[in-house]
Amino acid sequence: MGRFVLRRLAQSAVIVFLVATLTFVLLRMAPGDPVRAQFRDVTVSQEVIDEYRRSWGLDRSMPVQYVQYLGNLIRGDFGQSFSLHRPAWDVIREALPNTVVLALAALGISFATGMVLGTAQGANPNSRMDHTLTVITLAVFSIPIFWLGLMFMLVFGQWMGWFPIGGEVSPVYRGLPLVGQLADRFRHLVLPALTLGLGGAAVVARFHRAAMAEAFAENFIRTARAKGLSEQTVVLKHALRNALLPAITMFGLSLPVLFSGSVLVEYVFAWHGMGLAAFEAVGRRDYNVVTAITMIGATLVVAGNMVADLLYRLADPRTAES
Amino acid sequence: MTALLRVRHLSTSFQTEAGLVRAVDDVSFDLAEGETLGLVGESGSGKTVTALSILRLIPQPPGAFGPESRIEYDGVDLLRLPSRELRKVRGAQIAMIFQEPMSSLNPVLTVGSQISEAIRAHEPVSRKEANDRAVELLDLVGIPEPGRRFRDYPHQMSGGMQQRVMIGMALSCRPKILIADEPTTALDVTIQAQILDLLLELKERFAMSVLFITHDLGVLAGVADRVAVMYGGSIVEQGPVRAVFEQPAHPYTRGLLHAVPRVDRPSDRIEGIPGSVPTATAWPSGCRFHPRCSECMKRCEVDAPPSYSAGTDHTARCWLLDQSEGQRQ
Asked: What's the ipTM?
């Protein structure tokens, strides 16, 4: 186990290094000048532009920039944001908690709903309930996420007035007592979390249904029934444990996607997370912020995969020894 | 001897895309207390479906039982028992072991926990007590170091060991009847003999009745008291093991016996039965064996033969046994 973790850590370091290099190259290959992108609406003289370029270190040769860039990354220094005139790390520090809250809520909705639906369907394949749920999950899966978000805003925000339609907190947030503050945050979280989580729930349900149906066809299910176990024990203990592996794989894959932020949902709901920050930084050619977000994303991807691999070993004794 | 299990007119069919598959058709037999009944036949003859039907382990749908079908255990029809009540019979009164021990054990649970959960499903004992009994059972079925092996996962054991675990699990609640569905088929020859010996020993010790299913007549000779021969979803001959082996009344049984290789009778080649087992979607008309039968008559192609007596407690479904005037051609 220890050797496995060490080997995976070494692989992860290589991957993160490659992502850093690729980010550097791609950003500088992209059209658009970072300095001019900051002055889109005003005309500035060439001297001012040259001055900015010098102070941001963009006047040096590419190899020199690359070496400095790697040196800064190793020290954990992401540099200054071009557009916001403050450390890029500060941008991350504000955006990441919002994204984490949204991602955890969406993950919870995806997996709780998806696993329950998939288990019910897989345990009763080809039943009326199975067919109905198949139609519903496929329909939800096919809905574009931004449209679903807009519909939620319209129905539950505008018409019903149950939930706010954007942002993380109300303008009056600071004046509220602690319980009120939590309730306010929760109310703001509901619609974006549902929008982001439901699509995932449909995917999880589809995959988990297949995994459950496969587990149910196994001989050991017949053995469990022949022992006189209740159907509940057969489903929850014997079939579910064996059907967990695909779910864990999906979990590992969706973890980084959600944590690096969903641009569409964050944009639609004005949710100040990593996705929205990345979207704005790319538009402004804000190299340092884009780099910081990419590096956090890459780290989360490899960490997510490692967590999934470790869970895999816990769930399946057969992989634990190899 | 009184019959502990009475199977009457059992018909089990499956609705498939290829049509209705009548896997088992009008099967009747008794299993007496302390008796071993051998159920023999080729692959696809309906042996396993018969065995699974007894504990209703056939998924419904697509499976369904015919309206005449009855499976009486202790005077109760298992086919009409509510599932709650049926669960009390499964494992506790009638237990079952299967052909492939590897796939019949749950790969992600320890073998010990799979045995103790069978005990706890039927008896109000603590987890600790059930675990202790599971270790005793592992010892009983001949697993060395049972205390340590309790925590093994199935993949850490050999096929023979896995089948021993299955046997231990089946015996955990001291059932009256053990259904063994080809328990040695998937094992090496030397291991087969060990498992058979173990089954015989435990059968005596626990005074169980055994329904022993196999495609291997040679195995049955040393194990069974009575034999039922299945072909095409129905029982074509049944009787005491000696009578069936020495005076087989059905041409199919004779064919099967010829197909068993023997060391005491020099022969150049083993004689098989020409043709192959028909599929359950399209049974032949009349006697289902007629296309492969060397003694086939005109009426065999048209009418299915009823059951005729072929001796004491010995019956066969074959027109050759029909004694009435002018019927034989």
From this structure: 0.85
